[in-house]
Amino acid sequence: MIIARSLAELRSALARTGPVGLVPTMGALHRGHLALLAAARAGDRPVAASIFVNPLQFGPAEDLSRYPRDEAGDLAKLEAAGCDLVWLPELEAMYPKDSCCTISVAGPALRWEGAARPGHFSGVATVVAKLFGQVRPVAAYFGEKDWQQVQVVTRMVTDLSLPVQIVPVPTVREPDGLALSSRNVFLRPAERAAAPSLFAALTAAAAHIAAGKESGASLAAARSAITEAGMAPDYVALVEAHTLEPQAQFASPARIIAAARLGSVRLLDNVPVR
C-alpha cells in the first residue's frame, strides 16, 4: 500500500497505479468505510482512500477539534482491506494560505443539514472537488447514511461536468439498526442503548406511508417515538429522494431523512419509502 503525504508523492503514486476508484474519508474508519472500500474494489481497478478532516465543513460551534482521529489504526485497516493508495494531505496542500476560491451550492444543499449547518455543504463540495482534481478518480464512493451529502456531490459533479462517477453505497448498521458513524464512540452506554430508536421510528414511518397512511401523521408518530427515546429531533421529513424537496404526499422516489440530538452526538439517518 502506497502512502502519499504531498502532492508530488501523490502524482508519483498515481503514475504507478493508473486510474483509481476513490473513497474520501475523514478517518476514524469503521465497517461502513470498509464497505466503501469493498465496493470500490469490485470496480476492478486500483483503490485509493483519502484521510483529511476538513475544517471547511465544520461550523464555529462544531466538533472539529473533538473529531476522532486514529491514523495508525486507519492505515492498518486500509491495508488489510486491500487499499492500494492512501492520500494523507496536510492542511496547506488542501488550502494554501492564498486560496480564494470555494464552491457555492444550492438545490439539494439548501434544506435540512444545509439549513442546520450553514456553509457545511459548501465546505463538503469544495474539499471533494479538490480531491477529485488531485486524485483524478474514475469513480468515487460515498455512504448513503449521509444521503443529502451524496445528492449534493452528485449534483456538483453533474453541473460542473466532472469526469467521475459517483457510486452510492448502502448504509452499514449495527445488528440493532444503528447506522455506523465515527461519532458513535461519543455515545454513553444509556445513549447507545437508545440510539437504535431513530432507525426503528423511521422504518415504521416508511412502512406506514408505503401502505397508504397519511404521511403527516406517520412523520408525527416518528417524531414522538424519537423524543420518547430521549432524543431531540431537528427534523424528520419525507422528501423527494434526489432534490431533497419536501413531499406533502408520497410520490416515488422518496426518502425519509432525520437528524436528532442524543447527548453530545447528532445522529443522522434515512430510509427509502418503497
What does this entry show, briefly?
This protein has 274 residues and is an alpha/beta fold.
Question: What structural keywords apply?
Answer:
Pantoate--beta-alanine Ligase, Chain: A,domain 2, 274 residues, Rossmann fold, three-stranded antiparallel β-sheet, 9 strands, 2 domains
What does this 3D model show about the protein?
38% of the residues lie in helices and 19% in strands. The protein is of the alpha/beta class and 274 residues long. The chain folds into 2 domains: 2-169, Rossmann fold (3-Layer(aba) Sandwich), CATH 3.40.50; 182-273, Pantoate-beta-alanine ligase, C-terminal domain (Pantoate--beta-alanine Ligase, Chain: A,domain 2), CATH 3.30.1300. The chain has a 6-stranded parallel β-sheet with strand order 1-4-3-2-5-6, sandwiched between helices. A 3-stranded antiparallel β-sheet has the order 7-8-9, covered by helices on one side. The protein starts with a strand and ends with a strand.
Please outline the helices and strands:
Blueprint: E1 2-4, H1 7-17, E2 21-25, H2 31-41, E3 47-51, H3 71-80, E4 85-87, H4 91-94, H5 113-116, H6 120-135, E5 139-143, H7 147-159, E6 165-169, H8 189-194, H9 197-210, H10 215-228, E7 232-240, E8 254-262, E9 265-273
Parallel strand pairs: 1-4, 2-3, 2-5, 3-4, 5-6
Antiparallel strand pairs: 7-8, 8-9
Helix pairs in contact: 6-7, 9-10
* Classification by helices and strands: alpha/beta
Output the CATH topology of the largest domain.
Rossmann fold
Give the number of helices: 10
Number of domains: 2
Taking Cα atoms only, what radius of gyration do you get, to the nearest Å? 19 Å
CATH homologous superfamily annotation of the largest domain: HUPs
Return the CATH architecture of the largest domain: 3-Layer(aba) Sandwich
Q: List the uncertain runs.
A: none
What is the top-level CATH class of the largest domain? Answer: Alpha Beta
Helical residues, percent: 25-40%
Largest sheet: 6 strands, parallel
DSSP strand (E) fraction? 15-25%
